[in-house]
Amino acid sequence: MIDPYLPFIRQTLTKFPDITASRLHAMVRERGYQAALITLISLYRPRPAAEAYLRLRTLSGEQGQVDWAHFGHIQISRARRPLMAFVMVLSYSRDIHLRFFLDARMENFLRGHVGAFNTWCGVPRVLLYDNLKSAVLERQGEAIRFHPTLLAFAGHYRFEPRPVAVARGNEKGRVERAIRHVRDAFFAARSFTDLADLNAQAEHWCRGQAADRPCPEDRTMTIRQALAQE
Q: What is the spatial distance between Cα 174 and Cα 190, in angstroms, rounded to a whole number?
C-alpha cells in the first residue's frame, strides 16, 4: 500500500529532514494514502553520517579539565540556594577534585581552582574549559575574549586557559565523565547536615574510593598510583 507514495516520502524527507511524522502523514493522506504511516516514517528519514572521534591522550601533568555541575538546591534557614559542584580532573591520572558551593560566581570559581592546586601541590600546564561565562566572555569563530580575571589568575599560577570548541563536548569528555561518576557514585542517596559536611565527605571520597579506581590510561595502576607519578 505504501509503495506508490515512497518516492514522495523520500523526496520530502530529503528536502525537509526535520519535518514531523504527523505533518508528513497528513501530506501523504492528502495524496490518497489511508493507512497508518507515522511508525514507518522513521525507516525512511535520512540519518546523519556518523562522526568519527580520535581518542585524545595527554602526557602526565600536561592537562586538566574544569566544569561546573548543578546538583539541585539546598535549604539554608529560610533561603533555598542552588548547590553547584566545581569539578576539576587531571587528564592523565583522572584524579578528581570536587568542591561544592552555593553559586557559580567568579570568586568560587577561583576558590575551586586554588583548592585543586593545593590538593595536588601543583598546576597542570593547560586547563580546558567549556564556554562558560567565568572563562569566555565572547567568541566569534576562532577569536576568543577571555574573562580578564581568569587571565590574571592564569598568569599568576602560570597555566594556559584553553576553551574547547563550541558544541564539542567530547573535547572535555574526562570532566563530563567525572561529573557523571560524582552523581552516580558519590551524590546519589547521600545525606549531609550542611555544606561543610558535604565538602568533607566529598574530600574523603575523592582521596579514597574515587582514587582506588583503575586508571583508564594504564589499567595496571589505580588512579592513586597514577597521580603519584603525575
A: 24
| Per-residue exposure over 143-165, b if at least 16 CB sit within 10 Å of its own CB, e if not | eeebbeebeebbeeeebebbbbe
CATH of 63-229, one of 3.90.550.10, 3.10.320.10, 3.30.420.10, 3.90.1200.10: 3.30.420.10
Output the tens digit of pLDDT for each of the chain's 230 residues.
777 878 888 888 888 877 887 787 788 888 887 777 666 666 777 676 666 556 667 889 999 999 999 999 999 888 899 999 999 999 999 999 999 999 999 999 999 999 999 999 999 999 999 878 888 888 776 778 889 999 999 999 999 999 887 555 556 789 999 999 999 999 999 999 999 999 999 999 999 999 999 998 888 999 999 999 99
Cβ 68 vs Cβ 198: under 8 Å: no
Distances (CA, A) of 168 to 52, 113, 130, 181: 13, 23, 9, 20
Amino acid identity of 74? Answer: I
Q: CA nearest 95: which of 211, 177, 220? A: 211
For 8, residues 6+ apart whose C-beta sits below 8 A from its C-beta are 27, 28, 31
Q: How far apart are CA 37 and CA 66, in angstroms?
A: 47
The Cα 10–Cα 17 span in angstroms is 10
